[in-house]
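Students often ask why inverse folding is considered easier than folding. One informal answer: many sequences map to the same fold, so there is more than one right answer. In these notes we will look at a single instance of the problem. The structure comes first.
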């Protein structure tokens, strides 16, 4: 259950949480055309709070809307500020932030030209996405029998609600089989991403992650690549097959919700030593320092909530 906060920002106003209601004819509910973001605000070591890479997340929200021919009736600056205002109104020093833009009530059918576009921002407490223990000890993943989207079927670089039916099918499949998370292959059979995460492998200290061709351009992915290169690692953005996962020394997921989650087992094969490896642990340590404002070099990724 999501723990209620005081306010939700909806169409320009901060309104009480329980009043953020919609009609069942809300167009996006029927056809899956809405775009959203997932952003995290962390409490910084020095006391204040900061949103991680807020500008990039807001930009991606607008990119998603643009690709779907949806016009969000606000500027990026206005949404940026509204997110800060929502956090302040809720007095949250740590939160997961979910902006969403969707097509409202009006005409039905697939081409609702005049229906309003609504925008909302919800903030709530969200701990470790795949569990505290998963973050520490690693999770067990399984490759789903569901294929990730083809680039001409869905807009894979957008965070479109409808894209996540595919993710949910995969997640349901593998969690019912007793695993923690699904890994999805692209239509050609190469490793693509998790249901809500990007994926990285490490072998002989070299890091590899699938290229952006058909996956979401994760902001955590981008951050981890920058941090890893800074640490002197070679990072290759290249397709790889499922057996490269099996024989990797280390595998981990990245995502706003998942942060950096080690994967200790895939399709019943133990990965490396079976517990998070040194590269994953090092990247985790730096990443959690960065989001808490401990690393001077990356302070420009933070938007302080003041
Ligand atoms: N791939 C997918 C399909 C995806 O949904 C996410 C984020 C990522 C990669 C990583 O992107 P980024 O957050 O920019 O590093 N998934 C969001 C939704 C999770 C949910 O269950 O809801 C998230 O992590 O917020």
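Output (designed amino acids):
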């Amino acid at each position: 259950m999501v723990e209620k906060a005081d306010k939700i920002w909806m169409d320009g106003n901060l309104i009480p949480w329980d009043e953020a209601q919609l009609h069942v004819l809300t167009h996006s509910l029927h056809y899956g055309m809405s775009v959203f973001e997932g952003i995290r605000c962390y409490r910084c070591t020095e006391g204040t709070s900061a949103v991680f890479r807020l500008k990039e997340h807001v930009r991606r929200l607008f990119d998603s809307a643009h690709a779907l021919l949806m016009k969000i009736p606000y500027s990026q600056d206005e949404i940026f500020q509204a997110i800060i205002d929502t956090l302040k109104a809720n007095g949250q020093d740590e939160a997961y932030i979910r902006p969403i833009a969707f097509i409202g009530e009006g005409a039905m059918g697939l081409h609702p030209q005049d229906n309003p576009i609504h925008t909302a921002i919800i903030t709530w407490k969200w701990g470790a996405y795949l569990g505290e223990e998963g973050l520490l000890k690693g999770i067990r993943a399984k490759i789903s029998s569901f294929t990730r989207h083809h680039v001409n079927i869905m807009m894979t670089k957008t965070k479109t609600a409808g894209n996540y039916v595919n993710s949910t099918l995969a997640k349901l499949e593998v969690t019912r089989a007793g695993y923690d998370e699904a890994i999805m292959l692209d239509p050609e059979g190469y490793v693509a991403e998790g249901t809500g995460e990007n994926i990285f492998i490490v072998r002989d200290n070299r890091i590899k992650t699938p290229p952006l061709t058909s996956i979401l351009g994760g902001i955590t992915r981008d951050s981890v690549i920058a941090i890893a290169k800074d640490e002197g690692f070679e990072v290759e953005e290249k397709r790889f097959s499922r057996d490269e996962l099996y024989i990797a020394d280390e595998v981990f997921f990245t995502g706003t919700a998942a942060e950096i989650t080690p994967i200790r087992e895939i399709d019943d094969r133990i990965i490396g030593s079976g517990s998070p490896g040194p590269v994953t642990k090092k990247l985790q340590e730096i990443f959690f320092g960065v989001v808490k404002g401990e690393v001077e070099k990356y302070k420009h990724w933070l938007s302080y909530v003041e």
